[in-house]
Amino acid sequence: MKIAGWGEIKRALDEVSILLEVVDARFPPVTRSEKLEDLARKRGKSLVIAMNKADLVPRNVLWRWKKEVEKERIPTFPVSARKRLGTLMLRRGLKKCAPELPAKVLIAGYPKVGKSSIINVLKGRHSASTSSVPGSPGYTKGYTLYRIDRNLYILDSPGILPVGGSPLERILRGAELSYLKNPIEAALALISTALEFDPNVMERTYGIEGRNPTNMLEELALKRGLTFKSTKEINISEAAKKLISDFYRGKFSFFMIPQKRIYDASP
What we know:
This protein is an alpha/beta fold. The chain folds into 2 domains: 6-156, P-loop containing nucleotide triphosphate hydrolases (Rossmann fold, 3-Layer(aba) Sandwich), CATH 3.40.50.300; 167-249, Conserved Hypothetical Protein Ylqf, Chain: A, domain 2, CATH 1.10.1580. 39% of the residues lie in helices and 13% in strands. The chain contains 11 helices and 6 strands. The chain has helices at 6-13, 28-31, 34-42, 59-70, 87-97, 115-123, 167-172, 183-197, 201-206, 213-223, 236-249; strands spanning 18-24, 46-52, 76-78, 103-109, 144-149, 152-156. A hairpin with a 2-residue loop joins strand 5 (144-149) and strand 6 (152-156). The longest helix has 15 residues, at 183-197.
């Protein structure tokens, strides 16, 4: 996984008229990047938000998020790249937001928000890069420009946004496990937050009841047979990594609702 540097993101923004920020529809406020949006505004670029994975959120919650984000006068489009839902509206919205046509759009987002999936849906099977040589004149080095149609181009970053924040925010933003200094702390925060929004998520996913994140993580280790070979004691660290991996794969899933936000939850 390549992390895009802010310097190259700035250079890419200078080549386009629109920034398409892809966020996770389950956690819109956490997966938005304030720094990225500020950079776009300072450069006079139009900002559009695609809330991907919309199929994982109830419709009424999804539209409440859309309404809340659009209070900031940011055109927002719920989409599901996996189910190919909402992408036609997104394509039309990008054209409508363009100061002129043809227009170039930079697509960016945190890991695992589905940036690549949206690109694939938008460009279609028959679309191809407009340049066979990355870094050729008119292109930011390492970026690829795709023609969506005769009036719309997508500039694809070779990397993703740098992930920062609290342990919980890092997970929600898709940080690699290797970047988490303390997976146990992160997993406990994730369980605690998940229970706030969905009290039955651990029971539904793992058959584990209760409200104590530590006890739940220990029970998960027992259920999965995660123990140290030498002492036979439960391996909480491996259980934490298992839970986080399940979250990334969508097996362990929940969603936030407007007006009830938790960023730095602790067990």
